[in-house]
Amino acid sequence: MSAELVGVRVELGGRAVVDGVDLAVRAGEVLGVVGPNGSGKTTLLRTLYRAITPTAGAVLVDGRADVSRRDLARTLAAAVQDPGVTSAALRVVDVVEQGRYSHRRALEPLRPEDRAAVEAAMAAVGITALAGRDVRTLSGGEAQRVSIARALAQQPRVLVLDEPTNHLDLKHQLTVLQTVRALADAGVAVLLTLHDLHLAVRHCDRIAVLDRGRLVDVGPPAAVLTADVLAGVFGVRAVVTDRGLDVLGLSPPVAVDG
Ligand SMILES: Nc1ncnc2c1ncn2[C@@H]1O[C@H](COP(=O)(O)OP(=O)(O)OP(=O)(O)O)[C@@H](O)[C@H]1O
């Protein structure tokens, strides 16, 4: 299983925010997309899960462009930055059960395997105790984990996560990233965006660097996040070592008065 963008260009508000991007996420890997604010990461993910139609290029799932909405929903799950899980009076478990829609016929009750998938998804991100809570009462990090659990309950073969750790405390960041690793080890293709380059270096098999809508490079973290890329794209002086990423300061150095 793979999901692929081929020569993708996306124009929004009259300008290209993603341009000429070729990128494939493959079964068994965690592929991280990193880049500065506004570089096109969310747009790229939205294009892959077909929330946006590209201006040019193709989106392929297992090499095919003609996948139906229903087949796509059975194959690919996404947890996005603004999950909207807090807009209606639903319990946490109701939202996670939405992840089973694509596996059932309309109005069919949940089957034992659906319930098992929902329970496993909630346990994986530590929200079992929140099952009966009104989603409108959740904290940002709790709501984010509900959104991720809904995607996990879908048991997708391609999992797309937009900033899955941005509201999470350290323990839950690790919980989510370890869950992602276990899924990849089980053969799921995982594509995620991360702002935290430390997490990206540690938890991604490959990293794609976006800058102003263009793909700068894609490959293993240490090969891609070179000092030049970190300076040129992110504006920081930093190096990737065996221990991870060391950020030394801003690049070029900021002049300090006095
Ligand atoms: N609907 C829209 N209309 C016009 N411009 C848009 C629209 N959506 C996004 N953009 C612009 O497209 C660019 C890429 O946005 P995108 O959200 O993909 O970036 P990002 O890399 O995910 O950013 P961040 O790190 O801040 O989340 C930004 O300059 C943004 O302002």
UniProtKB/TrEMBL annotation:
SUPFAM superfamilies xref list: P-loop containing nucleoside triphosphate hydrolases
Gene Ontology terms, MF aspect: ATP binding
Keyword set, alphabetical order: ATP-binding, Nucleotide-binding
InterPro entries assigned to the protein according to its UniProt record, in alphabetical order: AAA+_ATPase (IPR003593), ABC_transporter-like_ATP-bd (IPR003439), ABC_transporter-like_CS (IPR017871), P-loop_NTPase (IPR027417)
Lineage: superkingdom: Bacteria
Pfam families named among the record's database cross-references: ABC_tran
Domain ABC transporter: 3-237
Presence of the UniProt keyword Kinase in the record: no
Protein name, per record: ABC transporter ATP-binding protein
Species per Swiss-Prot/TrEMBL record: Actinokineospora soli
Lineage: Bacteria, Bacillati, Actinomycetota, Actinomycetes, Pseudonocardiales
